[in-house]
Model the fold of this input.
Amino acid sequence: MSAGRDRVEATLDRLVDASVLERLQISLAALVFAIIVGAVLVFVSGLIVDCPDPFLSLPGVGGACYNPFEVYWTMITGSFGSLTALGRTLQETTLLLFTGLSVAVAFRAGLFNIGTQGQMILGALGAALTALWLGELVPESLLGALIVIPAGVVVGAVIGGLWGMLPGLMKAYADAHEVITTIMLNFIAMGIAFWLVQNHVGNLESDSVLTHTIPDVAQLSPTIGGTRFSLWALLAALAAAIGIYVLYDRTILGYELRTSGLQEAAAEYGGVNAKRNIVTSMTLSGALGGIAGSIYVLMVQYRWQDGIPPLGFDGIAVSILAGNNPIGVIPAAVLFGAMQSGSVALNLTLGVPPELVEVLRGLIILFIAMPEFFRMIGKRYGYGSDPLATDGGENV
Amino acid sequence: MNRPTVTRRQGLAIGAILFGLLLVGFVIDGGRALLGDVAGVISASYFAAVFRFTVPIAFAAMGGIFAEKTGVINIGLEGLLIIGAFSAVAALWGLSATPVGANIWVAFLLAVLASTLVALLFATVCIDFKADQIIAGLAIWLIALGFAPFASIIIWDRTNSPSVGTFPVWEVPVLADLPTVGPLFSATLPVFLLVLAVPFSWYLLNRTTFGKWVEASGEDPKSLDTAGVDVRRIRYAGVLLSGVYCGIGGAGLALNTGQFVGSGDTMVDGRGWIGLTAYLIGNYNPIGAFLASFLFAALDALQLQLQQIAGFEVSSTLVGIIPYVAVVIVLTFVGRTRMPSAAGEHYESDE
Done:
């Protein structure tokens, strides 16, 4: 078992340690390939859909309703084309920064936290309940907001952190693989939150599963009218990214956190308490997920409501695209934020199902997962000769 | 070679956990009368329903066993089930416009084919392009989760398909007419396939040369290579088998319902993940995995039936998380299930 685990970690090691330039190339190549595959999917879908005036008529096949160029152009204008669009993009970016950092922090320590979604859901509930309770007690003023909003964020962080600590403890002291435990804890978190809100702490008069709306004083007021984007939250997210960069790349604690997850035995040999550091990394990761949930409630939804978007899974894509670099998470979060808000425009103006973005997200993750694919292509078309770099699975 | 079995300790722990959870359920949701109602619900037709519920979970679990035993962790089982379920309904719907007609058997085969093709993609990505298996598996899940509702909207203009028809019910002659247990012997194709697939999978893994290769490919690929067997081929076979199994499971789920539901987490709704928990709890043994799947399906069916008896507040949500809680507890307190030692690792032949 431990030999197997070491090898699993060696794989992570390889992912983490690839050079920055190579990571950047792979990320860009993955992006390009995902966009191309997405374009083909959109074009083919357009052949199936019926529409009054297809942009292209193919003899024998029928009319093509969706022009891939127009689709991507709509996504770009829909995410940056107006102040409202920009606000929507930055709103998503802010949340994705926190979930992306959550995944990246764990990844840097060689731990794969798929549980950000669950940490976020519970953190969101904690923040909502705190805001509901504290919001009644504080004065309706800036002072009140300065008490209740940070309190909501802190409670969310603590709950998310504790939920993230669980798989950390299981990994460090019981050797339970964090990939499996974090996936399972997502479902458990979702179930617990749903049950609590439905039966105990939610708005029991409503047919939907949701809490009451938090008071005005607890809401992060929008910076751009017509959106739910608060500049303060974005600044906090950027500060978190820089802070984590400094922590992991410039401090001894950060170094220890990284080595503990990657090479537990070596770190222990060097006098580091690796087990404790694994727990610390997962707790920090969970806390960031919890903060994402808090911000979602305080800035966007103003309550906990069933059907929280899969920001935690988007965070995996953000982190992987960023090569798990906290600074790289910033442009990656902007990109995914833009895709999210662009998909809304896509649905409204062209009628393309917004789920396209989910497919693109999956494709990006898939392509980044296989750097070897791009090396093979590079060898084949860039340098021409490598007998090993051929067969694509003819042996079936 | 180490043949994985469920130890007594593990069995006891699982039993204790489930008993404890039931007890908690009593305390939380109240009522000793529940016991009476539980007894009232349990009948042959209840078990027939449980078998239907088990189909997607157990097929995903057995598929996962084959993939992981060869050394490729297939975390995309949920995605493959979604592809199977969606393709079955889409194929049946699409076939009605062709000369073939709405033939449910052809649709079923096409769905298995679709799921297997996606598994082939996953295998190529993991084995030939040396992708990180966890990330690639996650990608397969996320792509399927986005693609199925996307394609549903393209085809049917909404995330849920119209009703397309279900498998006919087959009755085992004579046995189906028995009193009390009769309903167990009238079922649809996927249920009969499940009953065959469990012993078949066990036999394949434990009593055949192929099974030994599968085991070696995951435990000690170097030796297998030295013995002249192509590790790459075995791994492809393992992953493709998981595709076939998930195709049967997903198509079975959708064609028993007669509709594809693409909203939320789609109609598959975590059954692939429960399959993953089932084979971990069953410790990579198809029979153990089937029993765990059956248990989870039984709880789910029980919860549904109790829901219909008015006045009962059994939280379907809490019952729904039991499999996940159980697997976390098993992984943490009972000790590790024996993961194949080379799982997750690429194998490079020296030739």
